[in-house]
Design a protein that fits this description.
- With 563 residues, the chain is mainly α.
- The protein folds into 4 domains: 32 residues, no CATH class; 193 residues, no CATH class; 127 residues, no CATH class; 109 residues, no CATH class.
- A two-stranded parallel ribbon has the order 1-2.
- Helix 11 packs across helix 14 and helix 17 packs antiparallel against helix 18.
- The chain starts with a helix and ends in a 5-residue tail after the last strand.
- The relative contact order is 0.08.
Length: 563
Amino acid sequence: MQTILRHAHLSTTALYTTVRLDDLLDRLAEHYRGPAEPARWSATYDADDMRRYSVTDSAVGPSMRPHVTSNRIRCHAAEPATSLQDGRLTQIVPEPPPVPDRPPRPLGELSSTTVDQIVALVADEFADVSRNARADCKHGMRRLLHRLAAEPGQTRQERWEGVGLSHAGRAIADLADGDPKWRSRLTRAAGIAFAMRLIHPTEDALRATNAPQYTEKFPALSRDPLPAAFRTRLQRHPVSAGGRKSAIRHRCRALTVYGIGLADLTPGVPVYYANAHPGCGIASAWPLLRDMGVLPAWVPHTLQDARVRGRQSVDDLVDRHQLHNREVRDLLVNYIRRRAVDYGTLDNLVRNLDRHFWKIVEEINPDQANLRLGEEIVQAWKERLLVRQDGKPRQHIDGPFLAVRAFYPDLQTWSAAEPERWGRWVASCPIRDADLRWFHIRRRRLQERMAANRPPANASDWWRSSPSTSPPNGTACAPYWTWRNEPGSASSSPSAASPGNAPPARPPFVGPTPRLRTGPWDQQGHRRTGTSDARGEQRLLAMGRGGVETPAWPVCVARNSSS
């Protein structure tokens, strides 16, 4: 070739025979954009083995073995065994319940029934109570219905609202004309009418009525097994008696005011009611409603978690940065969804690839439509990355560099398996080895600082890690030195240590103040005799008993020369 081209030196020929990287990538992308040819193997090979070890025939799953490109970057498989599902918002939007198509009517449709029929129905429902209580219910219901019949309106609900009983400041007891007996009867009858779904009250009307024993009458008249099951579960739930009563009371109140049954409860209704009534006990009822199947299984386990905005989907996280190029945005979404196996990795990839990489590239060159970045754009991006948005220098740029360094080789690897999806995005990586030259040293120093700042697990670890604080005079005991003389002597209090016997610095300890038994005297003031007492005390202290309520730090007991 050199002779034909008449080149004087072989290096001149190499200029014409070496394929440029851009040309190679263009030809490679053009090749993969074409129709894929099926692999043909000799009949002597087993078909299952070829399918298992072939990249083109089985390009997904565990058969895609990762290729190590350097000591820092690992090309990931085209389809990992486990991929992160799209995040779902754990926050439940508080919303009032919609008007049900079929409102609960436990005793049937009562809109067209007469007063006598309703009174007879009330008498049948309260047949197990005393005669006087049943008579009060019948008389109160009859007077209430006759009083509403005198008002204008087509239905009893319209007449109830026409009287003004749905507004705050009005109560059903105002219709008793000051008679305490009829006040009690009308209040009891109004509670029964609410439980029978004969009248749909507002929250102000229900609160002003304050019907007696309403939490017992409502489940009995609702003809629904769910309230009874809820009450049984709540009795076994670890909650106080006050919290249990509050949960039952507010549950009956919410179902009455909203005009729904317990089976019609949606996740947004308890949150909406709990926001309007803090401390109402709905938090205790939430896990029970979830276990009973009233709330769907995907809702959080607690009401507190339902109020907190949880994990977002990959699309929502990427769209926060408002990327202009829709195709690159879709590429990043697909790549991050495949690469992230946990939410922490997902959040880091979105931050490094979207905000720290492509968002800056679009600000530098808004017309950038692919991943082939020119040298000027790469240098401008690296310079912009060194400075944060607030103008301060960025201390750690290894995260964005490593994410981009893995992004490009992953696309190259996946393009071999799925060229129609990833082939057009194959390009040379803008991160060079020189950009990560001292990365391993920075990582090692970071790990050393983290290890140095890690607190010891116990006192023995501190003692082993601090050889410079060994006790003086070669004695093997803990850094607490105390001398005590005979009681009543001039030096009965702890004496000041001499410079040669100065105790070392006290190790860091979080806990109760140590109480020491020092010298030959116990806590009762009795003197211990013999050296065995001191040795026994040291053994007790070493086992964490005897007198020091701290980790096992033995105490040296120095006897006075006169003792």
